[in-house]
């Protein structure tokens, strides 16, 4: 087998329409503890995306605060379209020359589109009273995702609580309490 971008590239004689097809994106995902569900459509789920440089995801949000928490995509930019409901979205710029990080936010309703530049920390939250659904298109077949809180407080092995206490300018006991919330059983959330 030939490997391209880390994934098997099928012999053209073996390729079928099913290599370019994925059913079921019309079905909502099961909401996690944050009140959201991300249903990815990357090269991992749809082999036909290999080498195309694109992917997408359906994101379901519970009402009254369901969120896709602060995260980043290290290998792709994202364009988000609200299908139903409303979302407050935002991203933070990278370190500026003056040492400040700017937050850009926007309230979105059905049909609105917002772009999150590659690598920047961003979020979406349903601040409405009904469920919301969005479709995110990404400029990579496998953009990756780093959920900030999970990465910082739930790594294995854990980052030293003394390092995190100093970084977040808080007490070691506070960091210990937060890290306990991200024990291995929750690492998949």
Supply database-style keywords.
2 domains; five-stranded antiparallel sheet; single chain; 3 helices; mainly beta; Jelly Rolls; 189 residues
What does it look like?
Mn(2+) binds at residues 71, 73, 78, 122. It is found in: Cytoplasm; Secreted, Cell wall; Secreted, Extracellular space, Apoplast. Pfam families: Cupin_1. Residues 23-176 form the Cupin type-1 domain. Oxalate binds at residues 68, 73, 78. The chain has helices at 148-153, 161-167, 172-181, and strands spanning 2-4, 7-9, 36-41, 55-61, 67-72, 78-84, 86-92, 103-109, 113-116, 122-125, 132-138, 146-147. It is globular, with a radius of gyration of 19 Å. Helix content is 12%, strand content 33%. The chain is built from 3 helices and 12 strands; from the N terminus they run ββββββββββββααα. It has a 5-stranded antiparallel beta sheet with strand order 3-4-11-6-9, with no helix packed on it. A 5-stranded antiparallel beta sheet has the order 8-7-10-5-12. The protein has a two-stranded antiparallel ribbon with strand order 1-2. The chain starts with a strand and ends in an 8-residue tail after the last helix. It folds into 2 domains: 27-147, Jelly Rolls; 154-184, no CATH class. The protein has 189 residues and is mostly beta strands. The longest helix is centred in the last third of the chain and has 10 residues, at 172-181.
């Amino acid at each position: 087998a030939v490997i391209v971008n880390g994934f098997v590239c099928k012999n053209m004689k073996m390729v079928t329409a099913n290599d370019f097809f994925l059913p079921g994106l019309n079905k909502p995902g099961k909401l996690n503890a944050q009140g959201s569900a991300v249903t990815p459509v990357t090269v991992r789920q749809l082999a036909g995306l290999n080498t195309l440089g694109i992917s997408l995801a359906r994101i379901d949000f519970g009402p009254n605060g369901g969120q896709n928490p602060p995260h980043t995509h290290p290998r792709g930019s994202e364009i988000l379209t609200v299908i139903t409901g409303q979302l407050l979205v935002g991203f933070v710029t990278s370190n500026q020359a003056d040492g400040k990080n700017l937050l850009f936010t926007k309230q979105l309703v059905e049909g609105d589109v917002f772009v999150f530049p590659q690598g920047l920390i961003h979020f979406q939250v349903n601040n409405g009273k009904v469920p919301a659904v969005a479709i995110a298109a990404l400029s990579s077949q496998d953009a990756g995702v780093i959920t900030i809180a999970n990465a910082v407080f739930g790594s294995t092995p854990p980052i030293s609580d003394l390092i995190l206490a100093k970084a977040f300018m808080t007490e070691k006991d506070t960091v210990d309490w937060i890290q306990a919330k991200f024990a291995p059983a929750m690492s998949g959330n």
